[in-house]
Amino acid sequence: MNNGPLIFLGIFFALAFSWGGIIMTNHITYGSLEPYFDEATEEMFPKPIDGLAERGRRVYAELGCVYCHTQQVRRPGYGADTDRGWGNRQSVARDYILQDRVFLGTMRTGPDLMTVGQRLPSPEWHYNHFYNPQITSPGSIMPPYPFLFEKRRIVGEPSERALNLPPEFAPPEGYEIVPTPRADALVAYMLSLRMDYDLPEAPTAEQ
Amino acid sequence: MSSVSQFVASVNPTASADVGVRARLREIDESTRLPVLLFVGAALFWLLGGTFFALIASIKLHHPDFLGETEWLTFGIVRTVHLNTVIYGWASNAGIAVALWLMARLCRTKLHHGGILMVAMVFWNVGVLAGCLGIMAGDGLSIEWLEFPPYATPLLFLAYALTGVWCIITFRFRQSEHTYVSQWFLLAAFFWFPWIYSVAQIMLVIEPARGTIQALVNWWFAHNVLGLWFTPIGLAAAYYFIPKVLGKPIHSYYLSILGFWSLALFYNWAGVHHLIGGPVPAWVISAGTVASVMMVIPVIVTAINHHMTVVGSFAQVWRSPTLRFVVFGAMSYTLVSLQGSSMSLRTLNLHTHFTHYTVAHAHLGMYGFFTMIMFGSFYYILPRLLQKEWPSSMLISVHFWTASLGIILYFVGLSIGGLIQGMQMNNPDIPFLEVVANTIPYLVSRSVAGIIILVGHLAFTVSVVWMILKPRSPQETSPTLFRSPEAMPLRPST
Fold it and tell me: Residue B474 — pLDDT band, cuts 50, 70, 90?
């Protein structure tokens, strides 16, 4: 093999093959997938999330949540995703089309979050959990996010937004812990993560 | 001539039977000295930085409160900075350094347009620094292996393009009749990387593709960084140093052709096995699994080729710092690749996907294979560039044992922890927090391994700095080996 141009051509076509096969073929076949219009309810699925939750998506990216949490539910019978209550059907390509960045993830140091908004609908739970995961999930190895909250001295009436913390996590007397706008956005994003609609290609499994 | 003295001559930069060839090689080495040393220096800087961030990230996984108050030290950021410093800082700088030196040597030509390389080196490292600071500032993109914010990536791309252009210029100036297998791998690596990098940037950052197409692009890219950038450079170095230091030809020219083209054909399809069970077309996953299993061909072929070259010379391998590291790397390559093929099968992937098992696998590849080969290459290249010998065989020994035992402990501990995690996660009767608790001892073992590896990196850094600072001694006539040749019994010559 001493022929430079020939080696070069081989190198070129080897990569062109997978680029065409994995990327371009799929880009052409489902790269412009549209939301599903349900004629019975006259609704489109999936639904876009609101602005606050969209900002929460950005916080999710900034803090690198994707490195420990997936957002994908595998089909019943392959793994225990549905048995663990992480969703009642598998997630499919159409579920993701409105997300400008898809956080499928590849690691489950923590649980899947595809349907966390349905599983844990309480905002208080999420605020406490982000402030210190040990409050809601003792033994968790998720890091605390105290920098998403403000510790401030109570002047006059305590804020109605202050976290209701158990005594061992509470701030000193005369202080309160209040969420910052980034915490609000992140919690809104968590609550927006739902898969409570059917798509023709992925009907909810019969219980 | 006894095999020992032949071996000593082959690893000795100052003594050679053929003075003419020696002088020519020395001229080539002199022309590559500055650019290669700059890339090596940058690589070392990032190696230490990357190891430091790795340790913080590792400790955080069993002590989540550790440094928990500071936003830029939260796990998701520290882990990401670790990945990017070791991939784009350490491994890429080291890979480029070794590739430049190999390319000039194998083309038997002095370095032309070295200025291009200096500019590339500056752009590259400023890009990596800007990228890492950007991630710490919260600008990271959270796309695996592509976290650098958009203001850092053009610098990296430009640096790459310059290095690639230089590589092709050098290849065109080649004085050698024959093109060696290492040159095919290097040419391919320098051509492939800018392609996958630009496709990934365009389809994920500049004009993001719709939905899960992004995941396909992401893993096509991320796996190909390993398969089409680091693996070719690592194999090019192994193909060069094993026969070079032993003073024998590579076992089979035809096996190296088969190994090269089968790798080129199959590796770039394999990445989608990271999406098994995910919301992407099933046929793509199946194609990726087939390609991953087909990777057994280039891996076995390369393993046979290297093994048959080494066979009968294991004593020399053990004596030479270069070969101890390179052969450790080549063996890890075989192991990690066969493991990777097995992990692409749906039945095993069911238990290993989403777990620390994959993390252990990735480190066996990037550390056990690539990093060890880079260390070995440096032990050969630096004495020739500096015209000095390594100051202490003790430090090299510390480096070898900490690096090799560290990565073995890392791999074994985390693989077991990952399997337990995967099996228990697939059993819905075990609460999730119990699964987490069961992995903690293995996460601790990973931190211990990390400390051992850090000691090795410090020993290596001391070695390099000491070597650069020490005066050139005219008494040095033999290379630094693990045991001096005088202490070894001479075999009767045949």
Answer: confident
User: Does B358 lie at the interface with A, CB-CB under 8 angstroms?
Assistant: yes
Give this prediction's pTM: 0.93
| B32-48 residue pLDDT tens | 999 999 999 999 999 99
Please answer whether residues B415 and B357 qualify as being in contact, where contact means their C-beta atoms are separated by less than 8 angstroms: yes
**Does the structure show a pLDDT above 80 at B483?**
no
**Domain spans, chain A:** 8-45, 46-192
Test A141 with B77 for CB contact under 8 angstroms: no
Architecture of domain B217-486: Up-down Bundle (1.20)
Q: Is B284 in CB contact (< 8 Å) with chain A?
A: yes
Question: What does residue A43 show for φ and ψ, rounded to 5 degrees?
Answer: -125, 155
- Chain B CB within 8 Å of residue A47 CB: no
Taking CA–CA distances from A35, the nearest residue in chain B reads B211
What tens digit of pLDDT does each residue of B193-236 get?
Answer: 999 999 999 999 999 999 999 999 999 999 999 999 999 999 99
pLDDT tens figures, B82-100: 999 999 999 999 999 999 9
Give the Cα separation of A45 and A94 in Å (integer).
9
- Of B439, B472, B410, B483, nearest in space to B14 by CA: B472
The answer to whether B426 contacts chain A (CB < 8 Å) is: yes
Which residues of chain A are modeled with pLDDT < 50?
A: 207
Chain A, 143 to 162: residues with Cβ < 8 Å from chain B are 143-147
Q: Which of residues 140-169 of B touch A (CB under 8 A)?
A: 140-144
Are A66 and B142 a contacting pair at CB < 8 A?
yes
Fold of domain A46-192 = Cytochrome Bc1 Complex; Chain D, domain 2 (1.10.760)
- Per-residue confidence (pLDDT) for residue A41, from 0 to 100: 87
How far, in Å, CA of A104 to CA of A112, rounded? 10
Rounded to an integer, what is the distance from CA B487 to the centroid of its chain? 34
* Residue ranges per structural domain of chain B: 21-178, 217-486
- Cα distance from B320 to chain A (closest Cα, Å)? 31
What lies within 8 Å, CB to CB, of B93 at 6+ separation is: B39, B40, B42, B43, B46, B121, B124, B125
